[in-house]
Amino acid sequence: MDAKEIIARRVAQEVTPGSLVNLGIGLPSLVAGFVDRDAGVFFQAENGVIGLGARPPEGMEDPDLTDAGGGFVTAVPGAASIDSAMSFGLIRGGHLDMTVLGGLQVDERGFLANWMVPGKMVPGMGGAMDLVAGAKRVIVSMVHTAKGAPKIVRECTLPLTAARRVDLIVTELAVIKPREDGLHLLERGPGVTLDEILAATEATLLHDGVVPEMAL
Fold first, then answer.
1. What is the pTM assigned to this prediction?
2. DSSP assignment of 25-81, as one string?
3. What is the pLDDT along the chain (216 residues), one digit of tens a residue?
4. Residue 70 to residue 91: CA distance in whole angstroms
5. Under DSSP, is residue 92 helix (H, G, I), strand (E, B) or coil?
6. Which residue of the set 5, 14, 46, 180 is catalytic?
7. How far is CA 190 from CA 113, 170, 171, 216, in A?
C-alpha cells in the first residue's frame, strides 16, 4: 500500500454506518472506496451531491458527476443533487456527522490550516471554514511531511481554517488525537517505529511508550 491508501483505509474505519459524511477534495475523496457500500453511509460534497460513490472505472466517467474538486465520482442508489444553499445549510446547520479534510499544517492545539498554499494563487478557502466549524466530527487526512518538512507543527505559520480543534489526525505514519493537554499518539503506521514518527513531527507527541500499529 502507498501512503494515500494507508491513510484512506484507516480513515474509513472511523466512518459510522448510517452517517452523513463530507469528503474534502484530493486524498479525502479516496475514503469512499474503502467504506462498505451496504453500510448506509451517504457522502456529501459542497458542490451539491449527496450519495457520492467511489471513483468510476476508467472510461466510465460522467462529466456531470463530480466532487467539489472536479474529480469524477459515482453515485450510490438514493443519491441526490441539491443546490449550494441546501448543501451549505446542511454544513452550517450541524447536520454532518463527520467531515474528512486534507491539511497543510496542524498545530499542537489541534488547529488546522488547509487552504492557503504557499507561493500559489488560491481563490479562497471554499467550504473548509464552514466544515470545520459545523461538522460534528472533523478528521484530517494528510501525508505526514511535505518535501521532508513536518506538517504537524508547534504553531501553524499558515492562516487557520477555523478556531476549533480537530478531532483526529490520520497520516501514513500515525493516528493522533488532539486533546486539551496536547497531541496524543494513538497508533503507528504499518512498519513504522516510534522514533521515525517523532523525527518526522515538529510538535510534541504525548504517548506512554507503547504505541500499537494500525490494523488495516
1. 0.93
2. SSGGGGGGGGS-GGG--EEEETTTEEEE-SPPPTT---TT-B-TTS-B--EEEEEEE
3. 999 999 999 999 999 999 999 998 889 989 988 999 889 999 998 888 899 888 899 999 999 898 887 888 888 888 999 998 999 999 999 999 999 999 999 999 999 999 877 777 666 777 899 999 999 999 999 999 999 999 999 999 999 999 999 999 999 999 999 999 999 999 999 999 999 999 999 999 999 989 999 999
4. 20
5. helix
6. 46
7. 26, 13, 11, 8
Q: How far is CA 165 from the centre of its chain?
A: 14
Judge whether 58 counts as a catalytic residue.
no
Contact 204, 178 (CB under 8 A): no
Up-side HSE of residue 152: CA atoms within 13 Å toward CB? 32
Pairing, β 205-206 against β 182-188: parallel
**52: Cβ contacts below 8 Å, ≥ 6 apart:** 23, 32, 43, 44, 45, 67, 73, 74, 75, 76, 79
Report the distance separating Cα 133 and Cα 129, nearest Å: 6
Q: What is the dihedral of CA 166, 154, 122, 50, to 10 degrees?
A: -10
- Residue corresponding to grid cell 493537554: 181
Q: Give strand pairing partners of 42.
A: 20
Q: List Cβ neighbours of 13 (8 Å cut-off, separation of 6 or more).
A: none
| DSSP helix/strand/coil, 211 | coil
